[in-house]
Specification:
There is one protein chain. It is elongated, with a radius of gyration of 41 Å. The protein has five domains: 29-202, Topoisomerase II, domain 5, CATH 3.90.199.10; 233-316, Gyrase A, domain 2; 335-469, Orthogonal Bundle (Topoisomerase, domain 3); 493-669, no CATH class; 676-832, no CATH class. The chain is α+β, with helices and mostly antiparallel strands. The strands form 15 sheets. Strands 27, 28, 30, 33 and 34 form a five-stranded mixed β-sheet that branches. The model is unreliable at 1-19 and 841-872 (pLDDT under 50).
Length: 872
């Protein structure tokens, strides 16, 4: 008999022997046991319940803390031991779960070393640390009278099925767990924002919720997707530049710690992605990691590289799964909050109903007590000899006086009356009894009013929570839209590229051959060959491209500025063609033919121009037949930039002897338009944000910040701008800058006008006194300001005064103190519309005509159909 993967019921019975072993069918056991196990892990271990936001072990910890609560701290080991009465697992799992709750600083008031989520340090042993319930937990989590109870796992104790939590706790704390076949990852949200959202929901208004992490950091929630599957939250550390050689990390991404973050930076440094001299970890209560970088390395570029290659940026994929009615369901964060809020309203209703019932019972017995004592009904029982007689006598004595009561008098009520002590009867105060009953009536009416206006009561409840516990729980994580960082643009060039032109090899291991450039191991390399081939390939130690390489460089994807100028011979005895083209996208490791594809084609002249420059070359022909003109100049500026597959324009049909460079050219591209995107605070050429202008290679940007620093910089798309930047515009070297500032040492306002004297140097344009402040900076040619004076006590307010700053002060040096604006106290300085000014337009003599830079690509089928107008 053969066994082919499973047992066949037709051939084997349960007790059939095979090779001396008993064969047992396991299909039924596997099905039942596995489902039981999966259900247990999902419901009892990994996923929180929507009713209270707790996993079972967390619920049992909170129940044990409540049982032990006497206002003092308890040893965590003691709490763990107490919890083991309810939890079927060991002390280690309980202690770990308790530490996680304590580190979230919401439900447990901790004492001792509970670890540090910033550094990753673990908590001390449970015998050394202590805990008690926080005031928030006592107010929000427990209400025994409306709690549903069940027996513990061994039947000896009672434990809550769910705790009556009157707050969206699972969203405040977050939750993470891996079960069988599913997992959950609910990110933590801000305490105050959850309360605000609950109030909006109760009012029927829309709301939005986004995560807020205890480690702070910067987050991009563009694709949060309400916490459902497929969503993503990008998290970044907060990195600032102290000076040109020092960066500081003050906040870290959620899910990381300072140790893992530093390790990732060191690994990136070892791999050559970034360059770091030294890292100092000064983290204590707050994160402070100093990253020292070598001189000559751009801080802005290093910040981008830290985000691209280290744990300074991470991506978190939320998955909101929660238990409802003993089933796992996937709900968006907004729906979880709505259901939690509705559950809170129901719990408040139950508490009010119980409170109303208790108040009415108190009123009922207080009224009975008053009737019993005031009418001296207790005397009617003096002569009674039996218990039944006592009950009957009291019942008879009460009947004339109980018509106003809200329910009938029961035997239990009468029994309670008999338990009143003689001392209480003798000291009974009728006025106090009336006041007590009236106060109960007021409380009953108030409770009824709350029940009738339950939503308003719930809103007031949430407002009170925020007022009582919301202080110090402001949002920590800043929400911002991130810019996408291209790794190839920020990676440090950590290796050198070499080429063997004749043999056709490129690579980083060819140290005996010609050095080309510094590169990184993630760069692409573009190569052109003598016979008109082009290939883009990944950097490697040694790669064969083709023999007779004429040009090799690091390839920039989507680069429309770099222009290649080329003259080639079209096959043996064919005509010569000229063409200009860009290379913006390719298929890696594919050899492209830039000629028409004929055999023996040859490149006669080639140049790569990073800014679209068009040089002038001299063409020399071979003496052939009756040709008279053997030499002439050719200007690439006369050739349009087309696709790389275009054939080009005919230079000559005669044999070319050589082509020489006569004159370097200027750029033929249109000035590049640059925009500033205020959302991500970065420059771009994609049309996002505010247009700063059209920039040529020599143009610069003027930047000023609120601290009084002014500088000019090149319009580099990798530049990061500070939050306190107040001016960003294209710099005109001839346009004066006007500044009004408060001079702290003289307690006066000063005005100055100046020109930038040292481009690329940051200058302080206000005085260095610590109390000096920049009040206004104007980039207008003829600025006007309005002075608003402070009203003096007992005097008429001085009318506002307009000042023409151009007439008020001449242009001085950038370091000049300036002129005093006024000796009077100023309330405000307001910018007005400037006076009219027309800047003289000058045309530079050497400026050339700009041609269309658009890349007109052609398919292989179009080769031969290109413009073939002769330039000869």
């Amino acid at each position: 008999m053969e066994l082919n993967g499973e047992l066949n019921d037709e051939h084997l019975s349960e007790n059939e022997q095979y090779e001396g072993d008993s064969l047992t069918r396991v299909t039924g056991m596997y099905k039942d046991w596995f489902l039981d196990y999966a259900s247990y892990v999902i419901l009892e271990r990994a996923v929180p319940a929507i009713e209270d936001g707790f996993k079972p072990v967390q619920r049992r910890i909170m129940h044990s803390l409540k049982e032990l609560d006497d206002g003092r701290y308890n040893k965590v080991a003691n709490v763990v031991g107490h919890t083991m009465q309810y939890h079927p697992h060991g002390d280690a799992s309980i202690a770990d779960a308790m530490v996680q709750i304590g580190q979230k600083d919401l439900l447990i008031d901790t004492q001792g070393n509970w670890g540090n989520i910033l550094t990753g340090d673990s908590a001390a042993a449970s015998r050394y640390i202590e805990a008690r319930l926080s005031k928030f937990a006592l107010d929000v989590v427990f209400s025994p009278k409306i709690t549903e109870w069940q027996l513990s796992y061994d039947g000896r104790k009672r434990e809550p099925v769910n705790l009556p939590v009157k707050f969206p706790l699972v969203l405040a704390q977050g939750a993470e767990g891996i079960a069988v076949g599913l997992s959950t990852k609910i990110l933590p949200h801000n305490f105050n924002e959850l309360i605000d959202a609950s109030i909006k929901h109760l009012r029927g208004q829309r709301f939005k919720l986004f995560p807020d992490f205890p480690t702070a950091g910067i987050i991009d929630v563009t694709n949060y997707n309400d916490g459902l599957r497929g969503g993503k939250v990008r998290v970044r550390a907060r990195i600032e530049s102290i000076d040109k050689n020092t960066l500081v990390i003050r906040e870290i991404p959620f899910g990381s710690n300072t140790s893992s973050l530093i390790d990732s930076i060191l690994k990136a440094n070892d791999k050559g992605k970034i360059k770091v001299k030294k890292i100092e970890d000064n983290t204590a209560a707050e994160v402070e990691i100093l990253v020292h970088i070598p001189s000559g390395i751009s801080p802005d570029k290093t910040i981008d590289a830290l985000y691209a290659f280290t744990a300074c940026e991470s991506s978190i994929s939320p998955l909101s799964c929660i238990i409802e009615d003993n089933k796992p369901i996937f709900l968006g964060i907004s729906e979880v909050l709505k259901r939690s809020t509705d559950n809170t309203v129901e719990l408040l209703r139950q508490e009010l109903e119980i409170q109303l019932n208790e108040l009415e019972e108190q009123w009922h017995f207080s009224s009975l007590e008053r009737i019993f004592i005031e009418n001296r009904i207790y005397r009617d029982i003096e002569e009674e000899e039996t218990w039944e007689g006592v009950i009957a006598a009291i019942d008879k004595g009460l009947k004339p006086h109980v018509k106003h009561l809200k329910r009938a008098v029961t035997e239990e009520d009468i029994t309670r009356l008999t338990e009143i002590r003689i001392k209480r009867i003798s000291k009974f105060d009728l006025d106090k009894a009336k006041q007590h009953i009236e106060s109960l009536e007021e409380r009953i009416q108030e409770t009824k009013n709350h029940l009738e206006n339950l939503i308003d009561f719930a809103i007031d409840y949430f407002k009170n929570l925020k007022k009582k516990y919301g202080k110090g729980k402001e949002r920590k994580s800043e929400i911002r839209i991130f810019d996408d960082i291209e790794a190839t643009k920020v990676v440090i060039r950590n290796t050198k590229l070499y080429v063997n032109r004749e043999e056709g090899f490129i690579g980083t291991s060819l140290r005996r051959d010609e050095y080309v450039t510094d590169c990184s191991d993630i760069d692409d390399i573009i190569v052109f060959t003598k016979k008109g081939g082009m290939m883009v390939t990944k950097v490697d130690s040694k790669t064969f491209v083709d023999k007779n390489i004429i040009y090799v460089a690091v390839f920039k994807k989507k680069d429309k500025r770099t222009t290649f100028n080329m003259i080639y011979k079209d096959g043996r005895g064919g005509a010569s063609y000229i063409k200009r083209f860009n290379v913006t996208s390719i298929t890696r490791d594919k050899m492209y033919d830039l000629t028409s594809g004929k055999a023996s084609s040859d490149v006669l002249y080639f140049s790569a121009n990073p800014n679209g420059e068009a040089e002038v070359v001299t063409v020399h022909l071979r003496q052939s037949g009756s040709i008279k003109k053997l030499k002439w100049d050719l200007d690439f500026a006369d050739v349009l930039i087309k696709g790389r597959a275009s054939k080009g324009n005919i230079v000559t049909k005669y044999p070319v002897k050589r082509i020489e460079l006569k004159e370097k050219g200027l750029s033929t591209l249109k000035p590049r338009k640059i925009w500033f995107d205020e959302v991500v605070q970065r420059l771009n050429v994609d049309g996002r944000g505010e247009l700063l202008g059209e920039f040529r290679a020599e143009d610069m940007l003027l930047v000023a910040n609120q601290r009084g620093f002014v500088k000019t910089i090149a319009p580099d798309l990798n530049t990061r701008f500070d939050d306190d930047m107040i001016v960003l515009e294209k710099w005109n070297p001839k346009k004066p800058i006007s500044v009004i500032y408060y001079e702290g040492g003289k307690d006066r306002y000063y005005v100055k006008r100046f020109l930038i004297e040292n481009p690329n140097k940051e200058e302080l344009v206000i005085s260095e006194h610590p109390k000096s402040q920049l009040e206004l900076i104007s980039m207008d040619w003829r600025p006007m300001v309005e002075l608003e004076f402070t009203k003096l006590r007992g005097k008429e307010p001085r009318p506002n005064e307009n000042v023409d700053l151009e007439s008020f002060i001449a242009i001085k040096g950038i370091k000049a103190l300036g002129n005093q604006l006024t000796a009077l106290k100023l309330k405000n300085v307001n910018a007005l519309d400037p006076l009219p000014f027309e800047e003289a337009e000058t045309q530079e003599a050497e400026e050339i005509e700009v041609v269309d830079e658009e890349n007109v690509t052609s398919s292989d089928d179009d080769i031969g159909k290109a413009d073939q107008t002769s330039l000869f």
